[in-house]
UniProtKB/TrEMBL annotation:
<dbReference type="Pfam" id="PF00316">
    <property type="entry name" value="FBPase"/>
</dbReference>
<keyword id="KW-0460">Magnesium</keyword>
<comment type="similarity">
    <text>Belongs to the FBPase class 1 family.</text>
</comment>
<feature type="domain" description="Fructose-1-6-bisphosphatase class 1 C-terminal">
    <location>
        <begin position="204"/>
        <end position="335"/>
    </location>
</feature>
<keyword id="KW-0119">Carbohydrate metabolism</keyword>
<dbReference type="GO" id="GO:0042132">
    <property type="term" value="F:fructose 1,6-bisphosphate 1-phosphatase activity"/>
</dbReference>
<dbReference type="InterPro" id="IPR000146">
    <property type="entry name" value="FBPase_class-1"/>
</dbReference>
<dbReference type="GO" id="GO:0030388">
    <property type="term" value="P:fructose 1,6-bisphosphate metabolic process"/>
</dbReference>
<keyword id="KW-0378">Hydrolase</keyword>
<dbReference type="InterPro" id="IPR033391">
    <property type="entry name" value="FBPase_N"/>
</dbReference>
<dbReference type="GO" id="GO:0046872">
    <property type="term" value="F:metal ion binding"/>
</dbReference>
<dbReference type="GO" id="GO:0005829">
    <property type="term" value="C:cytosol"/>
</dbReference>
<dbReference type="InterPro" id="IPR028343">
    <property type="entry name" value="FBPtase"/>
</dbReference>
<comment type="subunit">
    <text>Homotetramer.</text>
</comment>
<dbReference type="GO" id="GO:0006002">
    <property type="term" value="P:fructose 6-phosphate metabolic process"/>
</dbReference>
<dbReference type="GO" id="GO:0006094">
    <property type="term" value="P:gluconeogenesis"/>
</dbReference>
<dbReference type="GO" id="GO:0005986">
    <property type="term" value="P:sucrose biosynthetic process"/>
</dbReference>
Length: 336
């Protein structure tokens, strides 16, 4: 008999990873356990964000992090949730977090084979306004024989085993991709407490006339950057200019760009000569998602973002990412 409306074969994240394991070389089950800990941290962070206004979790913590950001109370809580989830998974040897000055090593976890980089809450300046924020993560495998050193994480995006991000918006979304794989999107079903596969095999539209950048920085931009963004405001081939969309949470701007297409940028400028966004836990994971979805990501020198090697854990880069043709256009513009 046909049951028309109820899906009785729901693909949860756990089911997806189990089925994926067959195809994917990480067949030990350790990767699935690590992902379990990850998804628990996402649920917990999402929960506290949604309750923040009710339980006095809005506002500043009164401290700042290594890259100079004022920490919000939720930045600190999100970080603690994330780090504890990684520690207790037993599968993570070390963590780099935006909110931690140094690498955290879990030396007692001798079976741990993974190194994880994270931005526990991306877009935290938007938190108190209830605007979408999210968590960004990148997973590396330890080098053969290594018990976990800084070198296991100071790697380019091209060596990432998996990466992705969540967006805590009207619903919690999770986007994840594995090396050489497709990009898959999940939605948290609060009543099941599970991430459900809702966006299989995500592909970014090849082009779209939407640009996303903090235009308030144009005072500090290089001439080429000014010229490029100005060029989008004139009639294009179809007679229309680009639309502007900027949320100010990379996860939300990235999620929209992934679904609708367009270009997202945070260029290096005179105020931030190395860019603002950080390579290990912002730029590289996003670059992997965008490339695996058929898009592109480059730094301000038009180098492929996936090949940018950080020297220090909190190093930054300028970034342009989005639809294939939109990034192609940026590259051509900067090469002139
Ligand atoms: P975070 O909240 O993790 O420190 O990241 C902030 C980032 C990113 O979310 C966003 O794209 C960008 O900063 C916004 O910066 P501006 O406010 O300078 O536009
Ligand atoms: Mn920050
Ligand atoms: Mn961030
Ligand atoms: Mn952050």
């Amino acid at each position: 008999a046909e049951s028309a409306t109820v899906n009785t074969s729901i693909v949860t994240l756990t089911r997806f990873l189990t089925e994926e394991q067959a195809k994917f070389k990480e067949a030990t089950g350790d990767f699935t356990l690590l992902c379990h800990a990850l998804q628990f941290s996402f649920k917990a962070i999402s929960y506290y964000i949604r309750r923040a206004t009710l339980v006095n979790l809005t506002g500043l913590a009164g401290t700042s992090n290594t890259t100079g950001d004022d920490q919000k109370k939720l930045d600190v809580i999100g970080n603690d949730i994330f780090v504890e989830a990684m520690r207790s998974s037993g599968k993570c040897a070390l963590v780099v977090s935006e909110e931690e000055e140094e690498v955290i090593f879990f030396k007692d976890k001798t079976n741990a084979r993974y190194a994880v980089a994270c931005d526990p809450i991306d877009g935290s300046s938007n938190l108190d306004a209830g605007v979408s924020v999210g968590t960004i993560f990148g997973i590396h495998k330890l080098a053969e024989g290594s018990t976990g050193t800084k070198e296991d994480i100071l790697k380019p995006g091209s060596e990432l085993l998996a990466a992705g991000f969540t967006m805590y918006g009207a619903s919690a979304q999770l986007v994840i991709t594995m090396k050489g794989g497709t990009v898959n999107g999940f939605t948290l079903d609060n009543s099941f407490g599970e991430f459900i596969l809702t966006h299989p095999n995500m592909k970014i539209p090849k082009s779209r006339a939407i640009y996303s950048v903090n235009e308030g920085n144009s005072l500090y931009w290089e001439e080429t950057t000014k010229d490029y963004f100005n060029s989008l405001k004139f009639a294009q081939e179809d007679g229309k200019p680009y639309s502007s969309r900027y949320i100010g949470s990379m996860v939300a701007d990235a999620y929209r760009t992934l679904l609708y297409g367009g270009i997202f940028a945070y260029p290096a400028d005179k105020k931030s000569p190395k860019g603002k966004l950080r390579i290990l836990y912002e730029c590289a994971p996003m670059a992997m998602v965008f490339e695996n979805a058929g898009g592109q990501a480059v730094d301000s020198k038009m180098n492929r973002m996936m090949e940018v090697v950080p020297e220090h854990i909190h190093d930054r880069a300028g970034i342009f990412m989005g639809s294939h043709d939109e990034v192609e256009k940026v590259k051509k513009f900067y090469k002139q």
